[in-house]
Amino acid sequence: MAKTWFITGTSSGFGKELATVVAKNQDTNLVAAARHLEDLAYLDEFDAARIEKVIIDVTDEAQIKAGVAKALERFETIDVLVNNAGLGYFATIEESDMDQFRYMFDVNVIGLANMTKAVLPTMRAQRAGVIINLSSALALTTLPTMGYYSATKYAVEGYSDTLRQEVADLGIKVMAVEPSGARTQWSGRSSRKVVPAIKDYAAFSDSVANVSDSVTQAPGDPKRIAQVIFDQANASEIPAHLPLGDFAYHGGLQNLEGLVSEIKSREDLSLSTDD
Ligand SMILES: NC(=O)c1ccc[n+]([C@@H]2O[C@H](COP(=O)([O-])OP(=O)(O)OC[C@H]3O[C@@H](n4cnc5c(N)ncnc54)[C@H](OP(=O)(O)O)[C@@H]3O)[C@@H](O)[C@H]2O)c1
What we know:
Keywords: Oxidoreductase. GO terms for molecular function: oxidoreductase activity. Belongs to the short-chain dehydrogenases/reductases (SDR) family. It comes from Lactiplantibacillus pentosus (Lactobacillus pentosus). By secondary structure, this protein is an alpha/beta fold. The protein has a single domain, classed as Rossmann fold, CATH 3.40.50. Helix content is about 45%, strand content about 15%. It has helices spanning about 15-25, 60-75, 100-125, 145-165, 205-210, 215, 220-235, 245-265, 265-270; strands at about 5, 30-35, 50-55, 80-85, 90, 130-135, 170-180, 190-195, 240-245. The strands form 2 sheets. Strands 3-2-1-4-6-7-9 form a 7-stranded parallel β-sheet, with helices on both faces. Strands 5-8 form a two-stranded parallel sheet. Helix 4 links the parallel strand 6 and strand 7. The longest helix has 29 residues, at about 100-125. The radius of gyration is 19 Å and the shape is globular. NADP nicotinamide-adenine-dinucleotide phosphate binds near residues 181 and 186.
């Protein structure tokens, strides 16, 4: 039976490229979710018998429930859920707007959690499924002005690591994908930017002011990233973590190795607080 993929945020970037890979594949059904159906016209050149378009703003629980119900009515199963919808925020911690942070958390974390909750009963009943959560290289390491974005993606990592343990015996796999900067709208229209006004943070002004350049100049190729995600979701051993690109791999490892050596350097102190 054809596997059904359900992908959020398919209007652009990774979601669009992955939806295209799934739509081209003869052995898969696609449920493409987006906030505006007109953004999904690019799917019209593929086999309509295997594609369902649904409107989902991931901050809207009613739309999530309706979208999942429509997918099940059409294809009966959901085999792969890709929690891709997300946005960014570039600002120093001190100058960040907390309403913007709350909204980003609603999209990047609570939206992902509500989508997952809506799909889990189906995957549990099937005793099979793959949940792919778009995390970030910035959940393996951090950079100035990306603090609140990293906070949402570190949340996605902790959530994914726990979920993986809870569903391990139910045939459900959980993969966190950690891409480096890639040429999508994430650093363009999907991000808010606050160039530091406080002089003490002036060193970070250029990196915020120039961030939109990543839309065309970031090293990551969204088409290659989408293909790797698709291939790994179909691999016999599905990775728990999938860092993609140099910054995620080398930058992530450098940070994690530093963390391990810092923890080990105070072993006696750490162990001194237990009876
Ligand atoms: N590109 C990178 O450098 C990079 C690196 C690491 C991780 N990521 C992550 O990868 C994921 C995809 O981003 P992208 O790089 O492909 O950027 P993108 O081109 O901006 O795509 C983001 C997608 O999320 C959707 N979206 C935003 N808010 C939404 C909401 N409330 N409800 C439903 N959909 C919503 C957007 O829809 P609209 O078109 O309607 O706004 C768009 O389809 C995100 O989770 C991002 O954090 C990106």
